[in-house]
Amino acid sequence: MKLHPKYCSYFAMLVKALEKVPGDVLEMGTGPNSTFFLHWLCLDQGRQLCSYENSEPYYKIAKVCESPAHKVFFVEDWDEIDIERPWGIALLDHAPAIRRKDDARRLAQYAQCILLHDSQGRARKHYHYEELYPLFRYIYGYGKARPHTLAVSNFVDVRTWANRHLG
User: Fold this and answer.
1) Alpha helices in 26-81 (DSSP H)
2) Is pLDDT larger for residue 117 or for residue 160?
C-alpha cells in the first residue's frame, strides 16, 4: 500500500464541507487517510458515516473503524449499492476512478455537497467531471493542493468556500 501526502489533498475541502453542511456522510473509496479522519470528525459531530470499498486490503483497514455510528461495506458492484438517499456530504474517491462521475450523477439530487478527488489537468481526460457541470447549480474547483478537488452541489453554494482559509 502506497502512502503519499497527495492522497490527502481534499482535506481542506472536506473540513470546509464538515463545517458548513449538516447531515450524514457518505465515503465511496476508503483509505488510511480519509476513513480515520472522517471516522473521528463524524463521531465528534454526531453524524452517521457510511464507507464503501471494493478493494479487500482497504476494506480491511476501514473495517476496524466500524461502530454504531460508522458502517463499513464491501462492494462487489458499485451499481448495486443503495446510495440514493439524503446525505450531507459525499466524498467520492473510489476505484475505478471513471465511476466517480456516474456516482456523482446518482447523488445529484440526494447529497447536499459532493466532493470529487482528482479534478485537475491531465485527470480530466480520465475522469470526465465536466460532464457533470450541467447537472449542478454550484461548482467549485479547489486547486491549492494537487491533485485538485471538485465540489458540486444543487443545494449549497460551494463557490463561497473559495477563501484564504482553504490552504
Assistant:
1) 34-45, 56-63
2) 160
